[in-house]
Batch of 3 targets.
Target 1
Amino acid sequence: MNNTNLIFRRVHLYLGMLLIPWVLIYALSTFTFNHRDWFRGQFNQPDSWTQLWKKEFKADVPRQQPKLKEWARGVLDENGIKGGFNVRQNPQSVLINFIQFRNPIRVTYRKNSGQLLAEQKRTTLAEMMARMHVRHGYGRGGVLYNSWAFVVDLVCFAIIAWIATGLYMWWKLPATRKAGWVAILSGLATFLLLVFTI
């Protein structure tokens, strides 16, 4: 075996090992998405939110999203909640979702009643995996949040490298060429059929 073949085999092997937790979490979470009826009791349980505190609060809420984000950061800082978050508003309220995989927190500002309410969710395993699946983007709350986004980028590149090294090794084994072409063309045909018919 020459050095090039050995390098490709080792890259393919160790990338597969490196990707175990990431591919596993994406596979399991996608399975729960695809069969949501089977996991109905694991999602959106009505009694899963517990009140942490409620306060009287009056504030002028900015309408523009960048200023709204700054306003929400100030509200969280004043109440000792640190980390990444998302914020959105409607005419009645502002909802700030504190981003974390386990036991997320939401802070709701009710404009008409002048109340600020913080609640924490008791999280199921399926919900936690779903949050891992959809977590994305940089600049959402510090080094740890950016580290997750960076690792997701690495996983994307690693999967492409995994495919490339697999194709290389397949091509170097003439006995597998016909079966390999059948597999590649079958996968491509199925993908295109579904893309253009759904």
Target 2
Amino acid sequence: MSQYMDYTISRSPIRVLSPSVDPTRLRITSLTVVNAGHLPGRTLRREQAFFQHWAIVLITGGAGTYQVDGGEIQSVQAGSWFCLYPGAQFSYGPEPGRHWDEYYFTVKGTRVEEWLRDWFFPQGQIHRMRMDELLLQRMEHMLRLIDRETPDNLDRAALQLEGFLYELVCGENEREQGTRDRLAQAIIEDLQSLLYLPPSAVNTAARHHISVSTLRRIVLEYTGYPFNEYVHRLRTAEARNVLLNTDKSVKEIGEGLGYKDMFYFSRVFKRITGVSPREYRSRIGP
């Protein structure tokens, strides 16, 4: 694969591929690779740039920033990827005096519209990818196919790129879901361990570094109950255990579980179990 020096872009040899293949000879007409490249040690920064086609940019080293239409300046680190696309203005690249290592693939075709409609990420965001040797090998293999400039190999590169991007998107979804699952489990365990402290959505949210609205949404999603109702049910389950295994009074049990009003505690208990605390103890207890 050819390499050449362009000191306006990088101090290292770069590869920029623009295959010249007769489009009528392509079998995959809904997705075509327009150009691609590898820019190790890129120092060039683009300001207020416009693009005709969609491009996927993957950063494997270094750092910089990415900004769309003058909006939020987003940090770019190794293991980041983002898109360039028509209809928007982009400022991106390493900061002055710094560099990053970049792979990019530019595509066109109706298949891109299907991506955007069905599974591709919203525009204008930085995304994360898991960096490993396999990822680099797959990008290098696609570059080799593109560099051969034959219709069959260009078709193969387009198909491989679609699969590659799909896995990036699915991988990020799985990581986000996994992180959310772990957070939800930590919240549930936290609530279960604090039955004898006054329930507080504010304090619980602060311990897990999330907003109260996010806390309430997670609890509802993972338990099927609003936050306060789930706390009542946890405390009622504990009250049932204490009623059957100790001789504490209903008032003592309620107060210990954070209910200052014994009658309110009894109403909550009966609503959830169908019987009052005293009836529960007399019917089910020894």
Target 3
Amino acid sequence: MRDQPAVLRIAIMNTKGGCGKTTVATNLASYCAAQGCATALFDYDRQASSTRWLNIRQDSLPFIHGVAAFEPPKDGITRAWQMALPAGTQYVIADTPAGYSAIDIEDRVAEADVILIPILPSSIDIHCTADFIHDLLLIGKARTLNKRLGIIANRTRAHTRAADKLEYFLQDLDIPVIGRIRDTQHYVSAVEQGVGIHELAERDARKDAATWEGLLTWLDSSQQTIKSISEELRNCSGTAA
């Protein structure tokens, strides 16, 4: 089990629908859980794709605490109780909807330590993601609030015109590309079975686990960076006092 001193809250965000937010959320959650990390998956999307994925996930697989955050609390239960984390939770992964309002952006950014932005290699997705990043920085104040941002290129195929166009766009961003998800039907199969791609029986699917291993390593470094920033802010506050 990885040594994590505090909860790391990760929001998967992009206003563009179909860019792979649920793919990232479910595969990241399953990979974290497989490493022995206590993991929670919050589903803010009324389409409930992550919730359905959790509902069909077999009990024999590493446990993931699920919260249908898009639903109002049931009678007799407060919102705080509904959103409470089990003791020892290390990673909280939020699957967010497409097309949400400025208020939603502010709320999700405020709650997150890390924001992961999936993007597809198409002109429409590139333009929509550029607009979203603008809102993320201007409305959500992600930089001002010291949130760590990372791009995940989804359904990538090497040596294609679409991939080249995406790479050209990504080079102009001051946001690291921390993962590239290969264009393979294994991800579709994994969602249908309630598993991560690394949990599939097919041998050729296992090579894709390296994507999620690298992503988790980057998140671990984010944890240390966030901890260092917090300590610096506390020291500055103490000095000022």
